[in-house]
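Deviations from the work plan: none for this task. Representative record:
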Amino acid sequence: MSELTGEVARRRTFAVISHPDAGKSTLTEALALHARMISEAGAIHGKAGRKSTVSDWMELEKARGISVSSTALQFEYDEHTINLVDTPGHADFSEDTYRVLSAVDTAVMLIDAAKGLEPQTLKLFQVCRYRGIPVITVINKWDRPGRSPLELLDEINERIGLLPTPLFWPVGIAGDFRGLLDCTTGEYVRFERTAGGATIAPEEHLDAAAALEREGDAWTEAVEESELLIASGQEHDEARFLAGETSPVIFASAMLNFGVRQILGTLIGDGPAPGPRALQGGGEREIDDPFSAIVFKVQAGMDQAHRDRLAFMRVVSGVFERGMVVTHAQTNKPFTTKYALTVFGRDRTTVERAYPGDVVGLVNAGALAPGHTLYADRPALFEPMPAFAPEHFRVVRVDSASKYKQFRKAIDELDSEGVVQVLRNDIRGDASPVLAAVGPMQFDVVAARMRAEYGVDARFEALPYTLALRTDKDSADELGRQRGVEVFTRSDGALLALISDKWRLQYIERELPGATLEPLVAAGDL
Ligand code: G4P
């Protein structure tokens, strides 16, 4: 095995998808504890001493207690290199989410045992399904009263059509979490609580007879429940999991560190290693081809001390070495990678080498935008990321003429980062572009960042449109003359007709049967 294939085989790149409050930050911390990156958990556990977590960085995030940014955490665990890519935690679906999930090979769907499937989990899951990403289900907070395990699995099966297969089944009801039945070996893993859940929970492994003696009915119930599922065809099957048909289920308590080792073990044992990626126009870039990477996220202003722009790329093929000069496929220009970093929250470390599956942050990456390709030696161009149909539209203006220059800069930079789509036309002019978003919270992010990073207080005014359709030059004039329609150019060059509502659209389609009006990919269609 070459060095490269060896490195790729021991890599796992994943994201946690969850609804806010399901325990993503707590789990991230528990993983860091297991990887011995930190010696004690507790920054997040417990309100009193709660510090802002490693992945929270913006004022807006602090105010809302959410994470809007995307960062990646790399750690070594059991002879594997694990990349955990952070998903945006806000309740809106946004294009960010899709882009981040396009950079991972596995998703961990984290569910609160008392709440079951929640809206944000569902949306994120739909993105995983659309992209064919295998999903490991983790039912969290089993140390607290919650629903019955069978009911939770039924809900997953019925609402999202993913067949859950028990891998580590709880011994003890929700609120009385004693340990896990390992459904593969039939063994009982009994956990011991540690003070405040600050350290790894010691495990005791018992065979079935000893488990029965120790736990009595709780053990019998766990065995019966898991056997019932397996008898009805819900047995873990690697191929079906990788095909996105089934999802192995692990019960856990991120707070007590129960089940965390099992999550890591499943990720390593069953999660796929990085593989080839589809190229535009057909074919694939194989992992042992020359270096290539896809940019999935661009962001600026991560903290006040570093006001630069960072582009995050996922290495797709070959070996990345810091300092190598690569080609930016979209402009055909060379790009120097002298400043390559791993970034997690406020911590930055220089990266010297990276392999397929790894995430690298590139500093001052002005020309790079989400979906762009970088390569060395042999050209590559990956399939672009879809721009989703915006459903919310606002005109944005700045009152003070002295701030106009910063305003323009802010709009251009937030546009190229993909924070929001920017639409322009001659009638409105550059002073009042239209911002188009998939979810309205994108506007809050724009407003907060304009204020914090550019010192600009912008005014937003809602527009009476709810639909955006792609049109072309031949249809633009005619459409523009219709009531309830306005035509704009998006910064990627696409011509978009904004239309007030579906009735107006039906009317226009009748009046102008020859006009080009094509739907864009809707987030809700995923
Ligand atoms: P998020 O990143 O997904 O938004 O969730 P986060 O980790 O911040 O967790 C949300 C709350 O849930 C936190 O409580 C956290 O301590 C708690 N939590 C996370 N995992 C577990 C678990 O396994 N068991 C229990 N019992 N709680 C868990 P908090 O913000 O401090 O509020 P509270 O717990 O005081 O209400």
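Residues 277-375 form a domain with the Elongation Factor Tu (Ef-tu); domain 3 fold (CATH 2.40.30.10).
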